[in-house]
Amino acid sequence: MKHAYAARAPAPADAAVAPPAGAAAAPMTRRDYAWHRMDGAANLMVINSILLFDGDVDMERLVSTIAHRLPNYPRFTQIVQRRMGRPHWVEDAGFDIRAHIRRDNEAQPASLGELQSRMGRIAHLPLAPGRPLWHMTVIDRAGGGHAIVFRVHHCITDGLGLVHVLNHLTDEHGRHGRTPSPLGHPHRAAAAGNAVCSTLARAWAWLKIAAHVTRLSLLLPDTRTELKAPLTGAKQLLWLPPLDMARVRALAKRMGVTLNDVWVAAVAGALRHYLAERGQAVDGAALRAAVTFNLREKANAYQLGNEFGLVAVALPTHIADPCQRLRQASARMTAIKRSHQPQATMAFLSLAGCLPAPLQRFALNLFTSKGSVVLTNIEGPASRRYLAGRALTDLICWVPQAGQLGVGLAFISYAGQIQLALFVDTGLVSEPARLMALTQDAFAELDKNAAPDS
Description:
Layout: E1 26-27, H1 30-36, E2 46-54, H2 59-69, E3 78-83, E4 86-91, E5 101-104, H3 112-122, E6 134-142, E7 145-153, H4 159-169, H5 199-218, E8 235-239, E9 243-244, H6 245-255, H7 259-277, E10 288-294, E11 308-314, H8 322-337, H9 341-352, H10 357-368, E12 373-379, E13 386-387, E14 390-398, E15 407-414, E16 417-425, H11 432-449
Parallel strand pairs: 5-6, 10-12, 12-15
Antiparallel strand pairs: 1-4, 2-7, 2-14, 3-4, 6-7, 8-16, 9-16, 10-11, 13-14, 15-16
InterPro entries: Acyl_transf_WS/DGAT, CAT-like_dom_sf, O-acyltransferase_WSD1-like, O-acyltransferase_WSD1_C, O-acyltransferase_WSD1_N
Keywords: Acyltransferase, Glycerol metabolism, Lipid biosynthesis, Lipid metabolism, Transferase
EC number: 2.3.1.20
């Protein structure tokens, strides 16, 4: 059967741009290669996002804009090949932008509920082999405007890198043509250097990293709940109406914590209530989450790739009081920031990329058995963006899960609002809409109860 992403959208003649002149094969990092090999039958390592716009889509202008901006990042015109036994990024000689952008011409307008159903269907599709690992589906008449489903394999970049790409694709107003702003242009950006530390300091840091890797490998598997059931591969993607960022930031300020601390505490509260409603014991051991932790300088985001660690956090799901949950979440996140655990998991992924594929899968399953959910917090564009003359009204992103994990919750900021998104295996969470509603309730509960002296 022909691959679902093989259909080509109408595009102007100049849309099929050639790869950047002089681009040569480049070695792939072992860490990115680990992500490249991490796709499984139940979990694809694809970052799914949906961009909602006002107004009708101007398909010719859209494709032309993307064709002249996205190839500024070589990873979007390259495929992965092994050369001399090592993985490399190699230019796709037959690259055609029209093979990566498909227009979905459904006859009926798509409500937000229908969009969520379509996202569940699209998220099942593997990206086309033999092509650069990304794809866009343009949906007409979606939510009162139009939508773009942007899917990028994790081996290309992480969340921070994807936001950099999005900023480069879009404009700060609706008047620009296809030429991007020079601000933040990947061809003009300069890498930010890290402070050089002594050989002794580096050796001590690596000893700490090794100790963390050892400790993580020896952790017992997470508490057995229905969130740790075998994966079925049936997926559902949901999102909530946006939260006002100023309100959440004020809550964090009142309690002397970070936005990420509030997010972790809200998820802990939602999971506690969800499991309790289903007759699960919640007052015993805490559930663990794999929380993403950025290790990249923002100025280097244009380089793409993956520069983050996954930290194992014991969520305070066993604590009934919401303010106490928030304090506990903040204390645990602060302790992790002062440790080498994020660097340890990044080193673990680099080592996994050196192993034969079966051993990588074994190591990954061992690691992911330690937690029940994945949490990510992405800082998106701070102000309204425009693509092909249309305003981007909402930006939602879903975090993929690896190995034995089947529940992922994402928090992304955009233009003064926060979008909460859930990506689950429905064999583990049979009522994902209820879990989403409880997450929203947990924010409201914290806002109502949190005070500096609470």
